[in-house]
Structure formats: structure tokens, C-alpha cells
Amino acid sequence: MDTTSHKDHAHPNERVYVKVALWLGLITLIEIVISYTEFPDWAMFLSLIGLSAIKFTVVVGYFMHLKFDNPTLRKPFIAGIVLAGAVYTAVLLNLLLHSNG
Q1: pLDDT attached to residue 60
Q2: Which residue from 1, 5, 67, 101 puts its CA 20 to 30 A from 20's CA?
Q3: Residue 34: band (very low, low, confident or very high) from pLDDT cuts 50, 70, 90
Q4: Is residue 7 situated within a structural domain?
Q5: What is the DSSP string of 15-76?
Q6: Is residue 61 part of a domain?
């Protein structure tokens, strides 16, 4: 049985959360700039999906405290999100490939 209390976990202070929020804002700004730039569909898709994955990981890790959870609880969440991301990517790529025909 785990006898550690909530206070034993090393949660970040407010300054870390502000820095994380500022980085998330910067990534969002980059996403907006990319969406208004003339890129090929595949380049825009890959860059926006990549940036979204980074933002998702940061939000879940810090603001939902997944980074500080027990690894046993973290593994099913990660497996589910990887599967969901793969399905989403496959469907979106299928739509992009068949919309140009």
C-alpha cells in the first residue's frame, strides 16, 4: 500500500504554471501564423498536428498533474491517447487524400 501523502509529491509552484501558460500561448500563436501561411496541405497538417500534440502533452502533464501521478495510472491514459491520435490521423489523412480527387 502506498503511504505517501499528497504533500510528498513535488508539484511545481505558481511560477512554473505561468511559464507553461506563456509557452502554450506562444505555441498557439505559431499555430495561428501557420494557419494563415501558404503551406502545402501535408506540411500544414504535420506542423499543426505536431504542435497540438506538444500542447496536449504539456496541458495533461502539468495542468492535469499526470506528470506527477503513479506510472500505473499514466500508462492506460497514454495508450488510449496514442490509439485515439492514430485513428484521428488516419481518418484526417484519408479525408485530405480523397478531397483532392
Answers
A1: 81
A2: 5
A3: very high
A4: no
A5: HHHHHHHHHHHHHHHHHHHHHTS---HHHHHHHHHHHHHHHHHHIIIIIS-GGGS-HHHHHH
A6: yes
Evaluate whether residue 2 is within a structural domain: no
Domain containing residue 92: 13-99
The CA distance from 74 to 70, in Å, is 6
Structural domains in the chain (count): 1
Question: What pLDDT is stored for residue 68 in this prediction?
Answer: 73
Torsion of CA 34, 42, 40, 44, to 10 degrees: 0
* pLDDT, mean over the chain: 83
Three cell numbers, residue 43 = 506540411
- Looking at the domain assignment, is residue 92 inside a domain? yes
How far apart are alpha carbons 27 and 71 in whole angstroms? Answer: 27
pTM: 0.65
Long-range contacts of 93-96 (CB under 8 A, 24+ apart): 93/45, 96/41, 96/42, 96/45
